[in-house]
Write a structure and sequence with these properties.
Oligomer: single chain
Structural class: alpha+beta
Number of strands: 6
Shape: elongated
Radius of gyration: 17 Å
Helix content: 10-25%
Largest sheet: 4 strands, antiparallel
Distance between the termini: 24 Å
């Protein structure tokens, strides 16, 4: 993700979403942040800046940091996965062969405002991205 992504709400695809504020001293000073964790594995993916003590750092408030090395594409949010129509591509379970999908290779485009809005409202999917681009 090469640009800032700004959330316009705290409701996800599966209901209300919460960001718990935590005070933390970062390289750029003292900030209050809310961690963003993976719903599947629980790993820390990034954080949202809630407040900053230093005036020079307040431009970050309301912005999100997603660590690109921790973000991966996975079919788990695909409705077909929930219906058991797509096999897991989990690297921890090598007994299952990776599935092929018509959406293989479709990635989130952080430059597209509509896709950013879809992502933070919990609606983004490869299928929706393809439909938007084909309009």
């Amino acid at each position: 993700l090469t640009t800032q992504i700004i959330s316009k709400g705290f409701t996800g695809r599966h209901g209300r979403a919460y960001l718990k504020p935590v005070s933390r001293h970062l390289v750029t000073g003292a900030h209050t942040v809310s961690d963003i964790d993976c719903a599947f594995c629980g790993n820390l993916l990034g954080w949202k800046y809630v407040s900053a003590e230093e005036e020079s750092q307040r431009y970050k408030v309301g912005k999100f940091i997603l660590e690109t090395k921790k973000i991966t594409t996975t079919p788990e949010w695909d409705p077909a996965f929930g219906a058991g129509l797509v096999e897991s591509t989990d690297s921890l379970n090598p007994t299952m062969a990776p599935s092929k999908s018509v959406y293989d290779g479709i990635e989130f485009d952080s430059q597209d405002e509509d896709e950013c809005e879809d992502l933070f409202s919990g609606l983004w999917s490869p299928g929706l991205a393809v439909r938007r681009k084909n309009r």
